[in-house]
Specification:
Blueprint (H helix, E strand, L loop, with lengths): L1 E4 L2 E4 L6 H11 L9 E3 L1 H5 L5 E2 L20 E3 L8 H10 L2 E3 L1 H4 L2 H15 L5 H26 L3 H20 L4
Parallel strand pairs: 4-5, 5-6
Antiparallel strand pairs: 1-2, 2-3
Helix pairs in contact: 5-6, 6-7
């Protein structure tokens, strides 16, 4: 229902035809004057009433100054660090489910690993195989973090960190410090 670029955002509460938005953007190099939406600022976009909010550009976009105005049900952090620690607490109190950046944008790192493996082994996987393997890893990781958060009664961000630290500690014990 909304999308933005560096210059601002467009919004249509009935939804946007993303393929049309992309065609328009390709031709005009801006979202300005897209005919089937109203113009809103990037700050206003963050505060729209929506199911899923995906801040995917820069850090510190959701702070203690605007967190109380965030109306999404799910916040999926596509950017690195779009939410400050103080905002995290406010969003948690509001009951907003946060998929933290460390989990939400891990797909790029995972696919980079796939590329490294292919290069080392001289393999070239088809895109559908890469996507299938990526989906398996991302879904499994998401489920593991959810279960970890529930088991330890912490939020998703803390569960992500705890799980990562547990994995590094386990591997260090298994391999030894200098392996």
């Amino acid at each position: 229902m909304a999308i933005s670029d560096i210059h601002g955002a467009i919004h249509n509460p009935k939804g946007l035809d993303i393929s049309e938005v992309l065609k328009y953007l390709s031709k005009h190099k801006t979202l300005e004057d897209f005919p089937e939406a109203e113009r809103v600022s990037n700050h206003e976009l963050l505060e729209l009433d929506c199911d899923i909010l995906l801040p995917a550009a820069t850090e510190n976009q959701i702070t203690s100054k605007n967190a109380d105005k965030i109306k999404c049900k799910i916040l999926c952090e596509g950017a690195n660090g779009p939410t400050t620690a103080a905002a995290d607490d406010i969003l948690q109190e509001k009951g907003i489910f946060i998929i933290p950046d460390i989990l939400a944008n891990a797909g790029g790192v995972t696919v980079s690993y796939f590329e490294w493996v292919q290069d080392r082994m001289g393999f070239f996987w088809k895109e559908d195989l890469v996507n299938e393997r990526l989906k398996d890893i991302m879904v499994t990781s998401f489920n593991e973090v959810v279960h970890y958060a529930e088991a330890h009664k912490v939020n998703m961000r803390i569960a992500s960190y705890m799980l990562a630290i547990d994995r590094v500690a386990y591997d260090t014990r298994m391999r030894g410090i200098y392996a």
